[in-house]
Amino acid sequence: MNGLPSSRRAGLRSHCCLGVLALLGALASARAVTITEAEHEGRAQFKVATASATYHYDKAGGGFSRLIDRDGKDWISFRKEPLKEVPASAAAGFRGVPNTVFGKDNPDAGAGHPGHDQCVSSLAGGDTIRTVSKSGRWAWSWRFTETNAVFTMEKAPAEYAWWFLYEGTIGGRWSPRTHYWGTDTGGPRREITDTKRQLFEQWRWAYFGDDQSPRVLLLAQAEQDALPDTLWFMGSTRAGLDASDGMVVFGFGRGPGGKPQFRGAGHKFVLGLVEGAVKDAASHAQLAVVAGQWTPAAKPAARGPLRVHPTNPRYFADGSTNSDGSLHAVYLAGSHIWQSFPDTGHRLESGAEPPPVFDFDAFLKLLEASGHNFTRLWRWELPKWTEGDTKTKQTEHSQPHPWQRTGPGLANDGKPKFDLSKFDDGYFERLRSRVKLAGERGIYVAVMLFECWGVQHVTNAWQYHPLAGPNNINGLEADEDGDGWGLESHSLRDTGMGRRVLAVQEAYVRKVLETLNGLDNVLYEIANEGGSYSAPWQNHMVGFVRRAEAGMPKQHLAGITFYYSRDRARRGSNEMLFQSVADWVSPSDGPAAGGNGFGFKANPPPDFQGKIIVADTDHLGWNARRDHDWFWKQFCRGNHIWYLEWAYASPTEAVASRKGIGQTVAWSRKVNLAAMQPSTDAASTAYCLANPGREYLAYQPGRGGFTVDLRNTSATFSVEWFAPGTEASQLGEAVRGGSVQSFTPPHDGPVVLHLKAKD
């Protein structure tokens, strides 16, 4: 991931080879699956033999009764009797996969569960089993490969929720204290939870292993959601974890109180046995690669368009809801880089013409692998310039630009002049393609419409700018005072030339809006680092975006980032941002509303500033080294995050930063963010997101114990610890409210504490 030029020809060869290999692999997989008739516990079964496992599928039950590994160990171990006795059936009839349809008032309850008689199952090809409930209201299929089995819910009545469960025996036995597990949020872990202390989180995938087994069971969900999942260990007697038999219960979409969460058809899940034990973080990372391969549609397209959350305006809303029906809050955080849209030599010290081609696909993969969900597509207005801030001070170049270079005549950079009345289709095709690709990975994009920093601070910037008279055929010269800087191009000027320039800019913005209107993962940033002189113009452009999109199918939010200038006389203030008409803003350091010594760089203000805030390192010490700490502090003060990849070519420089960002995104999905507010009082650490009496996420930036104020509640809280530095997590003993509780972290160094009230 070094951001250096890449060979498209080599990429094409690679894709072709991968395509052939994928086809050959698919054909081999199809031949590697055999399905025959069998019997288990006196019930008719399909026996599915693959290279990695043998599955027994209960025809009338519509679910798996056995999952046998290469050593003959059964990872489900269903037995017919007792079928429905609590807790005894944890050693018998409760076991199975996917145990889908549940509920006392559901006439199809038991469908999807071995041992029941609610279904009819048949073969639908050489590698697929299809099941339909006897009522005809439910239908699902299982497609088998040599490595896994893929479940698809094809039909489900809207009035009944359902879940996807694994209930079985890890490594062929019940031995909670030798079992381990892990998820997309970390692992391997050895915490064991029983019926009294079930663990509820949100996971994309999970695995389970045993110390005596050379393999693990991997389960994955094809799409990401905001619904709770669960894990617990159920003994078959009141001895619980010390019972002589029992089962592990893992459920996608199994919420608190044993309530199913999924509704409707279309959901997909994958399960299978993977060779190799998971002993440490390295083998966990290797398994994560397998999980990613099993779920190629790992992240759903980003939902939207985003809105300001109506009840918690620190955050965005995408229209989806939480399990309690409340509107889901969206938190955005991720990396960005100058080369994300234009091919530009900015700070690369390349001096190349044409400029180096940036590997955008590799950058998206890095964002996705790091767990980021937000980036920034830069605009670079200068076709040519001389770097002033680098050691070699090279003359650099950028492309593409919004307008065609048709001539007649040559611009100052030696290329045909711009025709500002004709758009370059390639520019807008690239724009749509990159935003769309990001959205398919669940990444939101802020599209920068204008870039002011270069015009302000690069000595010869205006010499080559498209709006400079010598560089276009349309007779436009935005530098009306002739000082050679062209700051007027980002100003509102009530002159004949000013109105003509504005018309060209508005036509360009309208073209961008039309190009991207059909996409949901879009935000707009008016300009990067224009001085205070640009404030009226930027506010005008926010209004123009709203007016133009009012007549389009979708409307997107528009933001303004800090009014920066090296010239202090032209530098704006955060107060100007908060008083703007923008939907979201990105401030600089300095005093915040309310004062009290808070500043966005080192000690972000907890009080709401009136706008959604994106804390961007570009405006807060752009090349300062940061580990996870800075990002956790911003998150716990209610701010969204951008990290400028100023040293992208380095394999090590930003690793801790990227991890910290991804951690905050993952935790934003685990808590009910819509109900939480930053608090400096709830925890003695002063960094805490709190829903008083219900949920707390406290960050300890230092070391040692701290307190959380639970005096206003009598609830009992589950306890989970997370160490950002090592990404280790650990469950703690439940605590009861009614007092200020003291906590001693089990990890050295900075730590996160999550408290959640039990229902």
Number of helices: 11
Q: How many DSSP-defined strands? A: 43
Query: Largest sheet at a glance?
Result: 9 strands, antiparallel
**Which consecutive residue ranges, at least 5 long each, have pLDDT under 50?**
1-30
Q: Name the overall outline.
A: elongated
Q: Report the top-level CATH class of the largest domain.
A: Alpha Beta
- Give me the Rg, rounded: 29 Å
CATH architecture of the largest domain: Alpha-Beta Barrel
User: What is the arithmetic mean of pLDDT?
Assistant: 90
CATH domain topology of the largest domain: TIM Barrel
Strands of the widest sheet, in order across it, are: 5-6-7-8-19-14-13-10-11
Terminal residue distance: 46 Å
Total domain count:
3
Q: How much of the sequence is in beta strands?
A: 25-35%
Helix content: 10-25%
| Secondary structure category | alpha+beta
Describe the overall structure.
The chain has 759 residues and is α+β, with helices and mostly antiparallel strands. The chain has 3 domains: 44-294, Beta-galactosidase, Chain A, domain 5 (Distorted Sandwich); 331-675, Alpha-Beta Barrel (TIM Barrel), CATH 3.20.20; 679-757, Sandwich (Jelly Rolls), CATH 2.60.120. 18% of the residues lie in helices and 30% in strands. The protein contains 11 helices and 43 strands. The strands form 10 sheets. A 9-stranded antiparallel β-sheet has the order 5-6-7-8-19-14-13-10-11, with helices on one face. Strands 23-35-34-33-32-31-30-25 form an 8-stranded parallel β-sheet. Helix 4 crosses helix 7 (496-516). The protein is elongated and about 90 Å long. The chain starts with 7 loop residues before the first helix and ends with a strand. The model is unreliable at 1-30 (pLDDT under 50).
